[in-house]
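Cross-check.
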Amino acid sequence: MEVGSRIRTVAFRLEGPELTKFVTIALVAGRSLFANKLRSALTMLGIVIGVAAVIIMLSVGRGAQYAIASQLQGLGTNLLFVLPGSSTVGGIRAEAGTAGTLTLEDAYALADPFNAPAVLAVAPTWSTVGQVVYQGENIRTRVLGVTPEFEYVRNAAVSVGEFIQPEHLSGRSNVALLGSAVAARLFPDREPLGRWIRINNVPFRVIGLLASKGASGFVNQDDLVLVPITTALSRLAVGGSYRGANTIAGINVQVVSADQIDEAVEQISAVLRRRHRILYEDDFAIVGQNDILSAADQIIRVFTFFLGGVAAISLIVGGIGIMNIMLVSVTERTREIGIRKAVGATRRDILIQFLIEAVALTILGGGAGVLLGFGVTVIVSEVEIGGLTLNPAVGVDAIILAMGFSAVVGILFGLYPARRAAHLNPIEALRYE
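Predicted model, tokenized:
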């Protein structure tokens, strides 16, 4: 009797204006959800986890994009990287940089403004992995042979001491600069400046410490030692010659301005082709800083899209759970639906009520998922992987996408139970026990 009088009151109020009618239907739907709090909360759980997963995946992906862009900008501006050609073994061609086809004289030729006017500065590098020792401490790290131009071409700031000078280069001096990670390992409790270390059993005097740059992907930019390239070629290099000259790892080229990148590439190619007497296939490769950024960005975008798609599957699973619970709810409330129809509720009223219930579950679950996802990203932002601290960026677009998708899931998976409830025969519904 109580249920009948309550539904008659509702039916009477539905005769008012459309807005009042919709508000009344929404209130009825809300009371139905609130009457089964535990079941509603468990139904929303799939949506909560799905939305949180989407938020986390997209935020981590965007944070990785920002981190890589920041690290590449830290290498310098308007950069081109000239790499040696690729070697061929057994008919199989390896990647660029595997063949020793660049020399220090090539770098000097590129630095001549007459040969390449679009080039602002040139910083050749020689590279190896060496054992660095100081008394009882030792570390295996990257050793780079560089020139004084490396300091500003590659933003290699010095925190203490001085950078490699032209006289060190001309005199083939045994001097070295330590990255912050190397200095912390070799000199945990003393001042490194002026002390002598051994690199591959060759003594070097420490003249400076490099400012910390952190990690770039899985490469720690602080885990290295810099020495004059002439010293490296004469005292550390073993073999590796091209046309009678010692080979180098690559040439960093800083272009005058960003709009002269293409012009610089043409000038560099012309100089090297002339020096190497190339008629057909180049024995070098030129990679732009923007090319590296674009490739890394594309990889991260694909990876993020894939992970976001996997996370979205949980939203679909949550939608199936909502449809299942709504179908159970329709069965449990068959007699109530029959009474409502008997006192004047239309199919449209019943359809809207059950749709509101389904969408309300997904919207509430989506809101909780956004809060959960945001909380997890705050925790993840303190995690360090391979020396790189993750800094997820929660974007408004990610929140809108997750909430919008959850609302669509609620409508799609709530539509069938709502239609089933709306099309119940009122006579059969009233007889239902």
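The first strand starts at residue 79 and ends at 84. DSSP finds 14 helices and 18 strands in the chain. Passed to J.P. for a second look.
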